[in-house]
Amino acid sequence: MSILKKIEDFREEEERLKWEGTFADYLDLLKEKPWIAQTAHSRVYHMIKDAGVEEENGRKKYAFFSEQLYGVEESIEKLVEEYFHSAAKRLDVRKRILLLMGPVSGGKSTLVTMLKRGLEQYSKTERGAVYAIKGCPMHEDPLHLIPNHLRQDFYEEYGVKIEGNLSPLNMMRLEEEYGGRIEDVLVERIFFSEDKRTGIGTFSPSDPKSQDIADLTGSIDFSTIAEYGSESDPRAYRFDGELNKANRGMMEFQEMLKCDEKFLWHLLSLTQEGNFKAGRFALISADELIVAHTNESEYRSFISNKKNEALHSRIIVMKIPYNLKVSEEEKIYKKMIAESDLSHVHIAPHALKVAAIFTILTRLQEPKKQGVDLLKKMRLYDGESVEGYNSQDLEELKQEYPDEGMSGIDPRYVINRISSAIVRKQLTSINALDVLRSIKEGLNQHASISKEDRERYLDFISIARKEYDTIAKKEVQKAFVYSYDESAKTLMDNYLDNVEAYCNKNKLRDPLTGEEMTPDEKLMRSIEEQIGISENAKKAFREEILIRISAYARKGKRFDYNSHERLREAIQKKLFADLKDIVKITTSTKTPDESQLKKINEVIARLIDEHGYNSVSANELLRYVGSLLNR
Ligand SMILES: Nc1ncnc2c1ncn2[C@@H]1O[C@H](COP(=O)(O)OP(=O)(O)OP(=O)(O)O)[C@@H](O)[C@H]1O
Ligand SMILES: [Mg+2]
Fold this sequence. Notes:
- By secondary structure, the chain is an alpha/beta fold.
- About 55% of the residues lie in helices and about 10% in strands.
- A 5-stranded parallel β-sheet has the order 7-10-13-4-14. The chain has a 3-stranded antiparallel β-sheet with strand order 1-6-5. The protein has a two-stranded antiparallel ribbon with strand order 2-3.
- The radius of gyration is 34 Å and the shape is elongated.
- The model has no long low-confidence stretch (mean pLDDT about 90).
- The structure holds adenosine-5'-triphosphate and magnesium ion.
- Magnesium ion binds near residues 108 and 109.
- The site of adenosine-5'-triphosphate has 20 residues, from α6, α15 and α19.
C-alpha cells in the first residue's frame, strides 16, 4: 500500500471513530458499553490483558510486553498482578504512585514508553474508548456531572461507582453555557496522544529553584484576568500542567526522587485523595496512573531520610531487575542493534551470545548450592538441561538471592562497546573475539566499576572466551563434514560388515578388487575405543550387536545408525576424532596444497550458506580454530 493511501486510510479511520453527543446520549452509550466508564487504572490493566496472556508452567506471560521486553517475565507478572490488577479493582494501591526501581538501562523507560504508546492505540479501540466533557482542558469524566446526592441512585441503575467532583471550570460552564441542564452538556470521544497532550503527560524535574509547580498543576493566565475580573475565576486559569493533561490516562514522572519535596507533596495529595489543589480553586479531581522510575541507590538514600517517611508509604515500589537469561540477552542486543545505525554491520554468529554470557555472569550471584558453579547456574537459568539438576534445583537457586539482577553490566554498555569497536576499526564485520576485546578495553575506562568488580569481570571475559572456543570448534567440525549423516552411515556399515565377519569367523570380500580380506581389527578397535570398550570386552560387544541386528531382522525392521545408542555414540566420536586432524592441518597450514585449498573453500562456502557467516567472518573463524587446535 502506498504511503499516501495509508495516510488517507488513517484519516478516514479517525473520522470514523469520532463520537459526539449530549450527556443524555452518553448515558445511553454507557448502558450499552458499561466499560467506557472504567478508571484509568482499569483501562491500563485491560489494555495489557486484552493483548493476550499465555500461561507457561504456572507463569503468566503478557504479550503486551513480550514484544519489546525480554527475560523479565517474572517482574512483569508481579507488576501486572500486584499493581495493575489490584488497582483496576479500585483497591488502595491505585492511590499510590508506582515507582519502578531497577538498575541502569534495565528497561524501565522502555516499559513506561510501551504503556504510553499502548494507551494511545488502545484508546482507539472499542474496549479502550474514553469519553470526556467536550472542550474541557482536563478531559473530565462526564460522570462527574452527576451530583453527589444522586450518585447512589446512579449506581443502582448503572452499576457504576462515581469518584471525584466536577471541576470548578466545568461547574461554571454547566451554569453559563448549559443553564444547569446536565443532560445537554456535550460529551466527546477522546484519543490519547502524548504529542497532543491528551491523557498522557511527562514530567521531568529541572532546576529545583526555578521550576514552577505550574508545570504540574497549571497556572493563572494573567492575560485573561482583566476579562474575567478575578484570579479565582476558573476561566482565568490554564489547566495545562502535566497532571491536568494526563487526566484519564497516565503521567510519567521522570527522576522523581531527584525532585523537590514540594512537588512530591502535590503528588501525594493527588494520589491519596484523587485530587490536587491548583490556584485558588477547590480541589480538582483527577484519575490517572502516575509512574516514576529510579535506581536502587537513589531509592535507598530517599527512604533513609526521615522526612520522606510519609511519602514512602504512598509509593508502591516494583523492582525491574536485569534479565538473567543468556538467550534473552542476545535478543535484547539484536533488538538494540536493529534500532541503531549498526544494523548494516555483519555480526558473526555467536558474537552476541558470547557477549551475553559475559554480561549474565556479571549479574549472577555466586550459588551456594553444592556442586553448582556460576556457569552451571547460568545454563540452568537459561533453561538448558544440566546433568544432575532439575527444575526443583533451579527454583532453589532462584530462592537463594531474591535480589539478584540489580547489579552487573547493562545492555547499553555492550552495545556501546560493539559500536566503538566498529567505528574505531572501521569494520564491516565483527566477531565474538572483537566484541570481547572491546568489552575488556572498556572495563579499564569504566569509571564506576570498583577494582574488585573489574577483577571479577576480567575472569568472566576469560570464561566467555572459553565458551566461545568450544562453540567455534564444533562449528568448524560440523562444516567439515559434507554430509554428516551420510558419513556416519558409511562408517557404520563398514564396521558392521567387519563385525559380522569377525563373529562368524568369515572373510570379507573387497568390493573393488574382489580379494578376500580378514576383518579389519584396527578399524573396529578405533571405533570401540571411543566409548571405552576394552580388549577383553570387545567380543561380547560385537556379539551383542549381531544379536541386536538379527532381532531387528526377525521383526522385519532395519537396523540403522540410530538403533544402538552406544554404537551411535562411538561412531560420532570417531568421526570427530578423524576430523580433528584434517581440521587441524587444513586450517593451520600456511601454504595449503591443492586439495587442502579445495577443502577450505568448501568449508567456507558451507559456513556462509548454512551457518550465517560472511567471507570475512568465516575465514577468521577457520584461522582461529586452526590456532586453537594447534595449541
Ligand atoms: N529486559 C529487556 N528487554 C528488552 N530490552 C531491554 C531490556 N532491558 C534493557 N533493554 C534495552 O536497553 C536499553 C535501555 O533501556 P531503558 O532506557 O528502558 O532503561 P532504563 O531502565 O530506563 O535505564 P536508565 O536507568 O538509564 O534510565 C533500551 O534500548 C532497551 O530496549
Ligand atoms: Mg530510563
